[in-house]
Structures are given as structure tokens and as C-alpha cells.
Amino acid sequence: MTESAIKQQHPLTQLIIFIGITFAIIGGGYLLGAAIVVAVYGVDALMKIAQLNLDDPNAASGLWILQIVSTTIPIFLASFIFAKFIAKNTAEYLRTSFKFPWFLLVVIFCLMLVSSPMMEALSNINQKLRLPGFLAGLQKWMRDTEDNAQKLTEILLQMKSVGSMLAKLTVVGLLTAIVEEFMFRGVIQTILLKWTKNPHAAVWIAAALFSAFHLEFFGFLPRLLLGVLFGYFVVWSGSIWPAVWGHFINNGTAVVVSYLFQNQMIDVNPDDTHIFNKLAYLFSLIIMLLLLYLCRNIATGKMKSPFK
């Protein structure tokens, strides 16, 4: 495909091509991951994973293989292949430039830490949402999907040593942040920006797709907010790395807190959604808005970094 033909492609065409590439690679990755699990642990382990019977340590290890080979690596490959060989512009579609004020990362770190009460508030609102009675079957399917996702997460985040915590911090925290940001804030948000010509629309639509992608419907609102934050980090800075950093802080905090709770170092259960009160929700919202204002001004050069 010539460069002029690429430029003439409608963004919808690009989106369809990218989705096709992604599903094809994920499908191939799943077959490869399943073959590896069978070769290493046997067919029984694969069957137990399919049945969500993960009491067997081999099944839990096999789940990690499937997670990495069928999801993490394919998402990265799909984004890279599309940007490099289809769009032929990795700089524009992956936004890997490091040209942004480094102090921005400090502000984002603080922003992600103070966002916890707001995430809890949105989660509690989300949990109370109910579909009309005639959609009871859909509601049950959504709840079952959510419960299965929660069970899988609990298995993946079982940590009995500092070494296992660091390994999962690397995979769940860092690698997941990189590949998901390349996909949603890199390729998809860029395509949507070309389509809508509106950065706000691109950010919010990409965030909604990001949240829906996780198939955790009762956690849709807090993940939507995260997607919006990450989206604006990219729009303001022109780089994917502030979003990767914020994503890593969010995921990494969950990993570390889970490790500390599992090993009885803290009493706060990471699954508890009633840790904060309404005053904390309000305080979190106000501080988040102030830090977002600071983020935008630093990222766009309206405010100078104190590190210069």
C-alpha cells in the first residue's frame, strides 16, 4: 500500500483493519498458549483453566502462560504491526516520544494516589446500577462474567514472596500498562482523533472502549475515569509515556496492596469498596481537579517545571 493510499484511508477503515489484526493475533496467541500449556502441564491443566478450576498449581501457572501469550504479547504485536506496517507511522500512532517535562510524572504520581477515593465512589455507584427487568438474563451474564474475572484476578495475584510480587509487578503493572496504552491511547485514540477531529471525543470514546475491553461491567465507571485520565495525559503531552506511568501506578499499587494484605502486613482488603467516606470522596475530587489543571499546564508548557 502506497503512502498516499494510507493517508487517504478513512479512519473507520483503519479501525476495522486494526480490530481484525488484533483478533487474528489474539486467536493465534491463544492457540499457541494452549499448545504450550498442554505440552508443559498436560491436557488436564488446560481443561481446569477452561472450567475455572484453578486449585491445581499447574492450572494457575498455565493461566499465566495463557495470559501472556494470548493477550499481553498479541496486544503489543497488533499495535506495533498496525503502526509500523499499515499506518507506516509509529511516531504518530504509538506516540513514543520522550519529549515532555519530567516533572509531569511527579504530578501524575500524586494524582493517581489521591484518585483512590473517587475510584471507590464510582465503583459503588456502578455496583448499584440495574438493568430493566426484561434484561435480567443479560444482568446475570454480566454478573457471572464479573465474578469469573474477579476469580481469575485473585488467582493471578497470589503472592507469597517478594520475588513473586516483583514478577507480577513487572507483568501486571508495567507490561500491561505499556501494551494497553499502545493499543488504546496510541492506535485507537489516534484513529478516533483523525475521525472525529475532536480530542475530547477521541479521549472519551477510547476510554469507553478501554473499559468495555476488560469485560468487567460493574467496574465500568472507575475504569472509564482511568481511561479518560490517561487519554488527556497523551493529548496534553503528545507522548504515550505519561499515560503508561499513570497506568503503571494504578496497576502497581493494586499489586503491592494485594501482596501486603495477603501476607498480613496491612489490614486493608484491596477488594473492600467501603474504605473511604463522603468527605474523602469530595476531597479526592477537588485535589484531582487541581492536579489535572497542573498536569495540563505543565504538559502544554504553560507552567515551567521546577526541575529546569
UniProtKB/TrEMBL annotation:
The lineage of its organism: Bacteria, Pseudomonadati, Bacteroidota, Sphingobacteriia, Sphingobacteriales. Its EC number is 3.4.-.-. InterPro entries: Rce1/LyrA-like_dom (IPR003675). Keywords: Hydrolase, Membrane, Transmembrane, Transmembrane helix. The chain crosses the membrane at residues 12-43, 63-87, 99-119, 201-221, 228-249, 279-299. Residues 166-252 form the CAAX prenyl protease 2/Lysostaphin resistance protein A-like domain. It comes from the Bacteria. This is CPBP family intramembrane glutamic endopeptidase. One of its GO terms (molecular function) is hydrolase activity. The keyword Kinase does not apply. The keyword Magnesium does not apply.
